[in-house]
Write a structure and sequence with these properties.
Belongs to the transpeptidase family. Keywords: Carboxypeptidase, Cell inner membrane, Cell membrane, Cell shape, Cell wall biogenesis/degradation, Hydrolase, Membrane, Peptidoglycan synthesis, Protease, Transmembrane, Transmembrane helix. Residues 58-246 form the Penicillin-binding protein dimerisation domain. GO terms for molecular function: serine-type D-Ala-D-Ala carboxypeptidase activity. The chain is elongated. The longest helix is centred in the first third of the chain and has 37 residues, at 3-39. It starts with a helix and ends in a 10-residue tail after the last strand. A hairpin with a 2-residue loop joins β24 and β25. It has 711 residues and is α+β, with helices and mostly antiparallel strands.
Length: 711
């Protein structure tokens, strides 16, 4: 065979091999196509259809918040919202996009930088937490909420100037303010859900929130958020391969949130807020005779509870703020004001979060501790003008003296030196060894029994626990601060360190852990480092009023669904009891009646029908180093507890007495010296008509008191 023939044969062989390879490839391709189109065709067709449909969230209408009579405290209103459809925006070139975004910022009044931040999906490059869009990428992004109608109409009437821009009405929170109520610290506010919260909800399978949700951040809006938020709906839209919306493909309606019925009475709340604001304004016009300066009256609070249930009837705090400031998004300037110390930190609710020395309102609980730990109702101690402990003389208010008196008279005239002697006696007998952190202290024990030093359990977030400044606390405080103060003490005194601070630092460094006699006597009259919230004090006085039950105060009363059906009743919750003999409760009760009729509160109640509406009260003026006195009045009747506090406001009854009287007049329908229940702010409130109950030892237990055995 010639060379040419051999080459030709090899060429034909190669061609056959190539043809075989091509055929096998085509066979494989046809087999794969057959599998995809025939065997798995239906599955892939369904997946393709699913990928062409996207869900857009339809936000539910948030539930209402009403008072105990059904008066609306928080509702919803329609507001114009301007949104940008990013799928349409993406069709424009970069220059057109920039011009449109600038035009939207200009017409809505929102800063251009903020509009740009809101158009970025959270998690993408350049997203800013708190400003980025957390919702569906196929949903128009809100860039301005609660805009003026004229702005919305301009956008709607000039679509050629605002392509991809949508102006529509949505619901936002509204505050009707019946009787002028503010109630900001109780109601709370909303803000957009965060990325972390959304991820957590998705992990828990919670379908009630989504990337476009707003959630409760404070007050009952946060506490009952799960009930108020409702369930979102979904509108399905068809999109093309580029993600552009082609049309609607179905809708699942949203379910509105439930209504929260509260125990707040708007009429009483309105009065309480007015009294507190007026009292602070009046205080700032008066001069502190001790310092020669006008009273600062920098903050205050009022709490009104139902004595037998712990339900909150009214709760006011100053300074306060407009809860509507959060609607549509709060500005940095507004937020800075809410946290500003110069403005009084308006975001801080003093009733549940403010912590103050209780002053003489503490003395009834010290009386309870003493009468169940060695002292008796027959005890007589000197109410001298002063009581010396070491090299310091602890004095009575204005150095008054009343001779030898009992606990009842000591409460009436608010004698400090009487209670100094009690505190000193227990310290001397049980706790003079400063190294004994576990030394027994009956007064500290009794304070804890009444719930001080711990949260009350109210159904509001962020409650402060207060503080009982006992031996354990003082040792722990020393351990946490000794390095700081010893650092000052060990260094030479400089120009920025005052003589007082330098001397205090040296003393603290050496023996700051020691619980001295001075600490014990201060504790006995509610001074020193012990602090309470107004709500804690009100809850403890309610225990005196109801016979010894400690309730977790409640704002929520019931949950009602959109059809009007009650789906949950929020019952009062008992969290403890004060195991005092009924004779002791009766004794304290009678003594506090004396405060109102003869003692430090009597001058504010002339002509008040105390024989029909029996007010038990205790006044207090707590001295705070470097500040003016904190004024207190804590009081109760058979039905209600009313506590009022003004920081840096002066004396207790002098500052708060008139307001306390007017609140009780409103609660019972008192005009002058007569009682007309028909004029009571809360229907059905009437003074008790029954006779008192006599205990086994012959003392009087007022009507409504719990029956407890003597221990």
């Amino acid at each position: 065979m010639s060379a040419a023939e051999a080459a030709s044969r090899r060429s034909r062989l190669r061609l056959v091999v190539v043809q075989a390879l091509v055929f096998s490839l085509f066979a494989t391709l046809f087999a794969r196509l057959y599998y995809l189109q025939v065997v798995s065709g239906e599955e892939y067709t369904a997946q393709a259809a699913n990928q062409s449909v996207r869900d857009i969230v339809v936000q539910p209408q948030r539930g209402l918040i009403v008072d105990d009579m059904g008066r609306p405290l928080v509702t919803n209103r329609t507001a114009w919202v301007v949104s940008v459809d990013r799928s349409m925006l993406a069709k424009m070139d970069a220059g057109q996009q920039d011009k449109l975004v600038e035009r939207v910022a200009q017409v809505t009044g929102v800063r251009l930088a903020m509009v740009r931040k809101r158009l970025v999906t959270c998690g993408e490059e350049g997203s800013v937490t708190g400003a980025c869009w957390n919702g569906s990428p196929y949903q128009p992004v809100p860039v301005a909420t609660d805009v003026e109608q004229a702005v919305a109409l301009r956008i709607l009437e000039q679509p050629e100037d605002f392509p991809a821009v949508i102006a529509e009405q949505q619901t936002v929170r509204n505050y009707p303010r019946p009787y002028g109520v503010n109630l900001a610290h109780v109601l709370g506010y909303l803000s957009p859900i965060t990325e972390d919260e959304l991820e957590s909800a998705e992990e828990d399978g919670d379908e009630s929130v989504n990337g476009a949700s707003s959630v409760g951040r404070a007050g009952v809006e946060k506490q009952y958020d799960a009930w108020l938020r409702g369930m979102p709906g979904y509108r399905s839209v068809a999109v093309d391969s580029m993600g552009r919306v082609l049309g609607d493909d179905g809708e699942v309606e949203a379910t509105p949130g439930a209504t929260l019925v509260t125990s707040i009475d708007a009429r009483v709340q309105g009065l309480v807020e007015k009294e507190l604001a007026t009292t602070l304004q009046q205080a700032r016009t008066e001069v502190d005779t001790v310092t020669g300066r006008r009273y600062e009256a920098d903050s205050g609070a009022v709490v009104v509870l139902e004595a037998d249930t712990g339900r909150v009837v009214a709760m006011a705090s100053q300074p306060t703020y407009d809860p509507g400031v959060w609607v549509g998004g709060i500005t940095k300037k507004q937020l800075a004001h809410l946290y500003s110390e110069a403005a009084g930190t308006p975001l801080l609710g003093r009733a549940t979060q403010g912590q103050f020395a209780p002053g003489s309102t503490w003395k009834p609980f010290m009386t309870a501790g003493a009468l169940t730990n060695g002292y008796s109702q027959d005890t007589r101690l000197a109410c001298s003008s002063g009581f010396q402990v070491g090299n310091r003389v602890f004095k009575n208010y204005e150095s008054g003296a009343y001779g030898y008196i009992g606990f009842d008279k000591a409460l009436e005239v608010s004698c400090n030196t009487f209670f100094y002697r009690i505190g000193y006696d227990y310290w001397r007998r049980l706790g003079s060894d400063v190294d004994d952190v576990d030394a027994r202290d009956p007064l500290v024990e009794e304070a804890k029994v009444f719930g001080f030093g711990d949260e009350t359990g109210i159904d509001l977030p962020g409650e402060a626990p207060g503080r009982i400044a006992d031996r354990t606390w003082k040792r722990a405080y020393y351990e946490s601060m000794k390095d700081y103060y010893c650092g000052i003490a060990d260094a030479p005194q400089d120009a920025e360190t005052s003589d007082f601070v330098y001397r205090f630092a040296r003393e603290f460094c050496i023996e700051g852990f020691a619980y001295r006699a001075g600490d014990a006597v201060n504790f006995a009259i509610g001074q020193g480092d012990t602090i309470v919230t107004p709500l804690q004090l009100a809850r403890a006085y309610a225990a005196l009023a109801n016979g010894g039950t400690l309730w977790a105060p409640r704002v929520g009363k019931a949950i009602v669904d959109p059809s009007g059906r009650t789906i949950r009743e929020i019952e009062p919750k008992k969290v403890g009891s004060v195991d005092l003999p009924k004779s002791v409760l009766s004794y304290i009760d009678t003594a506090l009646q004396g405060v109102s009729s003869r003692g430090t509160m009597a001058w504010k109640l002339p002509g008040f029908p105390l024989e029909q509406v029996t007010i038990r009260s205790k006044t207090g003026s707590a001295e705070v180093y470097g500040k003016q006195s904190t004024s207190w009045v804590a009081s109760y009747t058979d039905d209600y507890v009313v506590v009022m506090m003004v920081s840096q406001g002066g004396t207790g009854s002098g500052r708060n007495g008139d307001s306390i009287r007017r609140i009780y007049e409103a609660l019972y329908g008192v005009e002058g010296s007569t009682v007309d229940p028909r004029k009571a702010y809360i229907p059905g409130t009437e003074p008790p008509a029954g006779l008192p109950t006599f205990t086994a030892d012959g003392s009087i237990l007022p009507p409504g008191r719990g029956e407890q055995e003597d221990r």
